[in-house]
Each structure stands twice: as C-alpha cells, then as structure tokens.
TrEMBL record:
<keyword id="KW-0233">DNA recombination</keyword>
<dbReference type="Pfam" id="PF12320">
    <property type="entry name" value="SbcD_C"/>
</dbReference>
<dbReference type="InterPro" id="IPR004843">
    <property type="entry name" value="Calcineurin-like_PHP"/>
</dbReference>
<dbReference type="InterPro" id="IPR050535">
    <property type="entry name" value="DNA_Repair-Maintenance_Comp"/>
</dbReference>
<feature type="domain" description="Nuclease SbcCD subunit D C-terminal">
    <location>
        <begin position="267"/>
        <end position="355"/>
    </location>
</feature>
<feature type="domain" description="Calcineurin-like phosphoesterase">
    <location>
        <begin position="1"/>
        <end position="218"/>
    </location>
</feature>
<dbReference type="InterPro" id="IPR004593">
    <property type="entry name" value="SbcD"/>
</dbReference>
<comment type="similarity">
    <text>Belongs to the SbcD family.</text>
</comment>
<keyword id="KW-0255">Endonuclease</keyword>
<dbReference type="Pfam" id="PF00149">
    <property type="entry name" value="Metallophos"/>
</dbReference>
<keyword id="KW-0378">Hydrolase</keyword>
<keyword id="KW-0540">Nuclease</keyword>
<dbReference type="GO" id="GO:0004527">
    <property type="term" value="F:exonuclease activity"/>
</dbReference>
<comment type="function">
    <text>SbcCD cleaves DNA hairpin structures. These structures can inhibit DNA replication and are intermediates in certain DNA recombination reactions. The complex acts as a 3'-&gt;5' double strand exonuclease that can open hairpins. It also has a 5' single-strand endonuclease activity.</text>
</comment>
<dbReference type="InterPro" id="IPR029052">
    <property type="entry name" value="Metallo-depent_PP-like"/>
</dbReference>
<comment type="subunit">
    <text>Heterodimer of SbcC and SbcD.</text>
</comment>
<keyword id="KW-0235">DNA replication</keyword>
Amino acid sequence: MRLLHTSDWHLGRAFHRVNMLGAQAEFIGHLVSTVREHDVDAVLVSGDVYDRAVPPLAAVELFDDALHRLADLGVPTVMISGNHDSARRLGVGAGLMGRAGIHLRTDPKTCGTPVVLADDHGDVAFYGLPYLEPALVKDGLGVDKAGHEAVLAAAMEQVRADLATRAPGTRSVVLAHAFVTGGEPSDSERDITVGGVAAVPAGVFDGVDYVALGHLHGCQTIAERVRYSGSPLPYSFSEAGHRKSMWLVDLDAGGAVTAERIDCPVPRPLARIRGTLEGLLADPALRPHEESWIEATLTDAVRPADPMARLAERFPHTLSLAFDPERVPGEPAVSYARRLAGRSDQEIAEDFVTHVRGAGPDAHEQAVLRDAFDAVRADEAVREVAR
C-alpha cells in the first residue's frame, strides 16, 4: 500500500507579515497532483491543519477545498488534530466526512478504533492519535499523572490491544502529533512542555509498522519506521536549512517500509545573512540571496541610518532585521534577547530567581515553578477547547 505522509499545514499562518494563503493553496494543488501521479492509496495528515483554534475564514475555505479535491480522487485520507487545532471544531461532521473517505480523528476516545483499508495483501489498520494534552486526557486514558509519555503510552496500549484482535498479518500505521526524542525542533513549533519534559521516546510506538509523526517542522527520520514529514512551507527563519517535502511511503505485504521524499513548492528560499551594513550591500557572495526572504543581522558598532531601506535596495524581500554590534574585548557580549534565546519558560524563571536573590531555586522551588507553568498551559488548553 502506498501512503503519502504530510503534516503541519498551518492554514492561515503568515510568515513575518507575508500572507501565505496563496502558497498554501499551491501546496494543496501539489498534494492532489502527487496523489494522482504517484498512485497513492491513502493520504495521512498528522495534525496542525490550522494555525490556531479559530482560523480565519479564508483558511477554512481552503481546507474545505482540499477536502473536496481529495474526496473527488476517491483516495482515503486519515487526518488527526494537532496542538494548534481546535479538536472539537476540526472534528465537526467527522462521521459524515468518513462516508466520503475523509477520516478525521480528533477525539482521544477513538485512539484504539482504526480506519481499516485493504489492498491485495490484506488489511491495513490506521490508528489516529490526535494531539493528547496530558492534563485534559489523563483521566480518560486512565493515567495517574499528567505527562506526554504516559498518555501516549496509554493510547498505544489501546492500539496494540485492538491490533491483537485482528487477523494475523494485519499491517498497522499510527498517526501521532508529538515531540519524539531525537527530533530536531525549530522556532516555529509551539512549546508543549509538561512537567519539564516535552519529548517522548520512540519506543512508545513499538509494535506497529509505520508511525507518521507531526509537530516538528523539519522532515526527518527518527527510525526507519518512525518519521516526521515536517511542514510543507517555512514558518520561521530557523527553517532556512530545511528541504520542504512529504514522505511517499510503500508498505509491502509483510509490513516492510520504503520511503521517498517528494519536494514541496516553496515561494522563495530563506537566507540568514550577517555582517556590517556596508559589507552586506557589497558582498558578491550574497548575490544568490537577492531574491530570497532575508533575515539580516547587522554587526555595526554604531547603528546605521535607514538600515532597512538600504538593505531593501539590494534585498527587496528583507523581512527581519536585528542588531548585534561587535564589541571590544572585555565588554559584555550577550544581549538580553540572546540570553533568552532557546531557553524554556522554566529555565528563564529559574534564572530570574538566581538573579534576584543570588542563589538558584532548590528542588522544591523548581517543582513549584514547574507545576505553575503546567497549570497555565492546561488553563490555556481548556480555553482553546472552550472557544
């Protein structure tokens, strides 16, 4: 059976004030063409269909168009909700859509209920695990303490229990939206840390033939049977080195996996450039980036006049401008923004305690801070669900 694995469409999201709806529509067209040209048997969408719980109307219309075009192909689609989606909104009409071959899995109660498709070699069971917010789903999954690994492990127990009741030789595919250990994140993903831990081990998914992951925006292979497709479009300059693509996965009669990357159309390449303003304007090595979307970091000791306007003369698609002046030896070289870059909320809070009183928090205080951040995230999740 041939599968097309994609995720993280983020319909409705902009890129540094650039409206991406046209590029997202082009991707949907590319997706449909790929399904047709490569004789795909099923499409897998592993969450974050939308960029926010209440998406703009234009994004909803594009999603509606995508569903109609996929249904018209007669190729089944299995789709789960991600942490950016409102699971309840995305799941409206799921029963009716299932009759058209669009199988939405947004309810944690359905983790052990697969979509079963067949080919010449027998059945393939597709289990959709929507994004599982630990604080909201732990009771339903019978988990004592909220945590990503615990709730995913409980969901996978349901998957394995159902799979054990099926005919020998039934192949299995799991769709999940999670941060799996070994994955390389970018600046585009929303933090899902709970209890100080965001990542779950890939071993949680043992026992199935293929795991189609969503959440991280870079296409990557965690293990031969565990892969992220990544987002089809870039949503931050941290993705400048990404090759945007989808996985074309062949599942043979015995469940063995072979996979090929299918490139996605990207409106412009991304480039991060750094140096003095005069140096950037004169450097011949930067000629290939003149039509790219640009993030420029200026290192001038004194901030130059009209830097954005001057940069735009050579790089008309400059979207982000930062200043990191070169300093003489002995001067503090790290700005406040740089000190915060890449640090979690927990680490920033602990640093603040250390700065204020001269000593860091002890283990009990660290736990109090962690519980406070978890409570805030849980409250935000409840608010999104209630919208």
